[in-house]
Amino acid sequence: MILVLQPDVDESFLERVRKELMALGCTFSLSRGDEQVIVALGGNFDPDAVYAAAAAWPAVDALNLRSDRYYRNERRKRRFMSWLIIGFGLLTIAALAFPVLNFLRPPDNKLELTGPVRVGSVTGFAEGTARRLRIHGDTVMVVRDHAGRFRAVSGDCTHLDPCQLDWNLERQQLLCPCHGGVFDILGNVVDGPANAPLLRFETAVVKDTLFVNRRR
């Protein structure tokens, strides 16, 4: 877009025009001739706003060298590119920050823990009984046989979907209520559809206190 002014235009008026155009986002380039003064406009501006401003200036003609649609499309493209650059910048920052934040995040309760766990006094276990416990996130059946020895095996059936086992006091065996599986106190399969033994855990008695360690 260009503005055409009279050759004898006052300098103070030109300064006023320049300031108003800059406020509208225009760059200002002036060329003087014998018959007229030409002001070439550039930058990211709204042609409608320039037309409105020029209408208030005496003896100023505003000529659009390109269509208003062209300038509007240019503004849309520039805005789109600006948001695209900002979006890529945010994604880059997130990609760089995620590993750092993940490293700094405190561990959750699902981490594998090791080491013996204090279960309690051996006097709390009658001979021939069993107790279901949680050891480092695992379901564990702790059994005390009639000889006073402790056994610890997984409390989940090994057939298809895990199902918690029940202790049968009369049979002295672990029974699966879901699949009908039967296991002895050592975790061996006695009957039923399961074909894998139960996972075993280590047990130890220290000063009348029972400890169960991580699975073997």
Concise account of the structure shown:
The chain contains three helices and 14 strands.
Walkthrough of the structure:
Residues 108-112 have low confidence and may be disordered. With 216 residues, the chain is of the alpha+beta class. 27% of the residues lie in helices and 32% in strands. It has two domains: 2-65, Alpha-Beta Plaits; 117-215, Rieske Iron-sulfur Protein, CATH 2.102.10.10. The protein has a six-stranded antiparallel β-sheet with strand order 5-14-13-8-7-6, with no helix packed on it. It is built from three helices and 14 strands. The chain has helices at 11-23, 47-55, 68-104; strands spanning 2-5, 27-32, 37-42, 60-63, 117-121, 129-135, 138-144, 150-154, 166-168, 173-175, 182-183, 189-191, 200-206, 209-215.
Topology:
Blueprint: E1 2-5, H1 11-23, E2 27-32, E3 37-42, H2 47-55, E4 60-63, H3 68-104, E5 117-121, E6 129-135, E7 138-144, E8 150-154, E9 166-168, E10 173-175, E11 182-183, E12 189-191, E13 200-206, E14 209-215
Antiparallel strand pairs: 1-3, 1-4, 2-3, 5-14, 6-7, 7-8, 8-13, 9-10, 10-11, 11-12, 13-14
